[in-house]
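Lecture notes, part 5. Sequence design as translation. It can be helpful to think of inverse folding as translation between two languages: the language of shapes and the language of residues. The source text, in structure tokens, appears below.
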């Protein structure tokens, strides 16, 4: 028997590192990374927070390991200058009363400058196990998520970099799209108003065969949703 139990050390490390993931979120502050997913699920997260499944922490950690690795590769790529790989974002929408805030961190994104052209490029790293043959276009939630960062960092484009556990990659280049930014803010406004009146948004993932994977694979609120709980 080994004297050292790495699994146990890793579990404790993950629990302490990601403890804040299970904290109750605050109405009025929303994350761009969540707003592209089922809004009803986000609503239940605010109304009835549940502890994050510890298995998800491994997934978060893998994302951070990939991020650090990509930042290191880019920092050593001739002709590229890494400008930032961690920065916070806060956009306030004053159209609502009270106003709501889009809060985020650039901690999954890396901002680089191409030295020949001066182009500012955001790199958003996503780990995925989906075979690339099935990944014909980036997820809409990922496209929406990057819009406030493109806007606030004055970046020319974003490269959504999907990385497989075997480190193979597939990249999509996405320019800023005002309509996508408007859609993201409208989703934030809708979630905010639903939370303030205590009325859940429609079960959008369940109603769309392209996104019902979210109900089957990820959602902790299937029971509440099927009963239309408030
Ligand atoms: S079960 Fe599906 S539709 Fe209902 S809240 Fe969860 S993800 Fe949304």
């Amino acid at each position: 028997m080994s004297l050292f139990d790495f699994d146990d050390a890793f579990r404790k490390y993950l629990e302490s590192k990601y403890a804040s993931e299970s904290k109750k979120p605050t109405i009025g502050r929303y994350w761009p990374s969540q707003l592209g997913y089922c809004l009803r699920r986000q609503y239940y997260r605010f109304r009835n927070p549940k502890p994050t499944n510890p298995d998800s922490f491994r997934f978060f950690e893998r994302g951070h390991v990939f991020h650090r690795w990509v930042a290191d590769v880019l920092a050593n790529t001739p002709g590229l200058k890494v400008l930032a790989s961690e920065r916070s974002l806060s956009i306030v929408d004053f159209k609502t009363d009270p106003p709501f805030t889009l809060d985020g961190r650039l901690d999954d994104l890396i901002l680089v400058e191409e030295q020949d052209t001066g182009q500012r490029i955001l790199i958003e790293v996503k780990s995925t196990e989906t075979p690339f043959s099935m990944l014909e276009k980036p997820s809409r939630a990922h496209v929406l998520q990057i819009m406030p960062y493109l806007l606030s960092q004055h970046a020319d484009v974003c490269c959504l970099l999907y990385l497989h556990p075997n480190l193979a990659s597939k990249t999509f280049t996405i320019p800023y799209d005002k309509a996508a930014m408007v859609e993201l803010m409208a989703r934030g406004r809708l979630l905010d108003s639903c939370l303030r009146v205590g009325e859940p948004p429609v079960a959008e993932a369940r109603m769309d065969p392209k996104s019902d994977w979210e109900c089957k694979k990820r959602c902790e609120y299937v029971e509440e949703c099927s009963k239309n709980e408030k």
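The translated text above is only one of many valid answers, since several sequences can fold into similar shapes. The domain at 20-226 is CATH 3.90.320.10 (Lambda Exonuclease; Chain A).
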